[in-house]
Amino acid sequence: MVKDTCGREITLMRLSVTQKCNLNCPYCHREGDGDKNRCGKEISVSEIKGVMRAASELGIKKVKITGGEPLLRNDIVEIVKEISEIESIKDISMTTNGFFLDKFAYDLKNNGLNRVNIGCDSLSSSILQKNIGNIEKGLKSAADAGLNPIKINMVVLKGINESEIGKMMEISKRYNAILQLIELIPTGKIFFDKFFFSLEGIEKELERKASKVFVRDVNFRKQYFVDGAVVEVVRSHLNRNFCKNCRKIRITSDGFIKPCLMKNDNLIKINFSSDEEIMKSLMAGINKREIYYK
């Protein structure tokens, strides 16, 4: 297993395959890849497979496919299939807004996708497009196809949806899904200052009510088992523990290695000329990883 200069084992790759999206969510960080000045072409299937071969040789066994909206790639099923054929990659997951998932769930599952994170912030909201009315068909299709576990990603926003957490827990139980409550991170000062809602109080309440608490090895995040629901809390903003235990390396949709979500001044352009050069690029990116919140 490869480690960065801070001694953190790298166990997971976050692979962005597109910056295209059918939505324009005001809080979206686009995997920290919103630099419109690069505007490079999207990473190809063969380039993705080369990166994943190198990652597997370094002991990375998990990959999460992200975007943008990954399901806007015409070759998304092929991407999943090619990654799944790398024997040492044991877990392939995807983040999606769920709008197109009903059309893809079975093909993705049959070609190697293990699990899925579906964005759903609200029961019904004119402000938040990722609401249960828009994504429930995709959520049902994911469950029927056998993608497991399903996670429902709920970004909690002050004055908009914090009162809906209890009802979202009920929906998660209906689909045997994990509800992942996500604290807003800064993508724009005005929006952040207006809508940031601290999950500290919610997490204390979950801990008080939980019949069981499970600590994951990813950032040591906690899952709370409450009345048949499973709730995970993601609080990365100003969180030293979150950074200290980060085990991810990121690949941008145009073929750069991004050592940290929060930094854009240390990207490494991947040299795709050979597997050896891809490995050198990957190691250079890993060696640039730092702890952002110290």
Task: Describe the secondary structure blueprint for this structure.
Layout: E1 12-16, H1 45-57, E2 62-66, H2 76-84, E3 91-96, H3 101-110, E4 115-119, H4 132-145, E5 150-156, H5 165-174, E6 178-183, H6 189-195, H7 200-209, E7 212-215, E8 222-226, E9 229-234, H8 240-244, E10 248-251, E11 256-258, E12 268-269, H9 275-286
Parallel strand pairs: 1-2, 1-10, 2-3, 3-4, 4-5, 5-6, 6-9
Antiparallel strand pairs: 7-8, 8-9, 10-11, 11-12
Structure, described:
The chain has nine helices and twelve strands. The protein is α/β, with parallel strands linked by helices and 294 residues long. It has a single domain, classed as Alpha-Beta Barrel (TIM Barrel). It has a twelve-stranded mixed beta sheet, covered by helices on one side. The longest helix has 14 residues.
Concise summary:
With 294 residues, this protein is of the alpha/beta class.
